[in-house]
Design goal:
One of its GO terms (biological process) is nucleoside catabolic process. Belongs to the PNP/UDP phosphorylase family. InterPro entries: Nucleoside_phosphorylase_CS, Nucleoside_phosphorylase_d, Nucleoside_phosphorylase_sf. With about 210 residues, the chain is an alpha/beta fold. The chain has 2 domains: about 1-90, Rossmann fold (3-Layer(aba) Sandwich), CATH 3.40.50.1580; about 95-205, Rossmann fold (3-Layer(aba) Sandwich), CATH 3.40.50. About 30% of the residues lie in helices and about 30% in strands. A 5-stranded mixed beta sheet has the order 2-3-4-1-5. α2 runs parallel beside α6 (about 195-205).
Length: about 210
């Protein structure tokens, strides 16, 4: 049985994490990211959720994997927020949608197209998925200070990986292709599977 003071899915309790949490999808990436922290150590692992905590410039910072997609991301953020985390930064891969975005460029996602379902359980579709402007500005400044190729803008959040990369075999192929063309023409920079859920959920949590 799980101790009552631990969160059900992430197996963490208050004090295990800092207020700042980096959120990769892949549990295998957590140790690599945590290696940039001082005195980092694994504090929990359960299902897709693996967490390391360490120090960065004297501040406690944690890294928790979310797994792929909105539902598991929502679980991680909900439970992390209950034990003191209040600033979440999603770190992961995405597929470029614009020719001027090169492989390896960083994208600071300021908002996301809500082409997914999880966020609908928090807010109606008319509610925008927008990142915290202060966090976005800090990330942009960090990219500039490090002279890292980067872009700031909108991403496309979806639920189906193969609906994007193999739309022609789907019964709704024409709708998928038409929507994709619209996002590209609208200047959407990349496609991923978590940002919209994170941004809408964070707003409802007051984070």
């Amino acid at each position: 049985m799980l101790n009552s003071d631990k969160q059900y899915h992430i197996h963490l309790r208050e004090g295990d994490v800092g207020r700042y949490v980096l959120l990769p999808g892949d549990p295998g990436r957590v140790p690599l990211i945590a290696s940039f922290l001082d005195d980092s150590k694994e504090v929990a692992e359960n299902r897709e959720h693996r967490t390391y905590t360490g120090m960065l410039d004297g501040v406690q910072v944690s890294v928790t994997s979310t797994g792929i997609g909105g539902p598991s991301t929502a679980i991680a953020v909900e439970e992390l927020s209950k034990i003191g985390a209040d600033t979440f930064i999603r770190v992961g891969t995405s597929g470029t949608m614009q020719d001027f975005v090169s492989p390896g460029d960083l994208i600071v996602v300021s908002a996301a197209v809500r082409d997914e379902g999880t966020a609908l359980h928090y807010m109606p579709m008319a509610f925008p998925a927008v990142a915290d402007i202060d966090v976005v500005d800090c990330l942009r400044q960090a990219c500039e200070s490090l002279s890292v190729p980067h872009h700031v803008g909108v991403s496309h959040s979806k639920d189906s990986f193969y609906g994007e990369i193999e739309p022609e075999r789907m019964p709704i192929a024409s709708r998928l292709k038409e929507s994709w063309e619209a996002w590209v023409k609208g200047g959407v920079l990349c496609s991923e599977m978590e940002a919209a859920t994170l941004y809408v959920l964070a707003r409802t949590l007051g984070k």
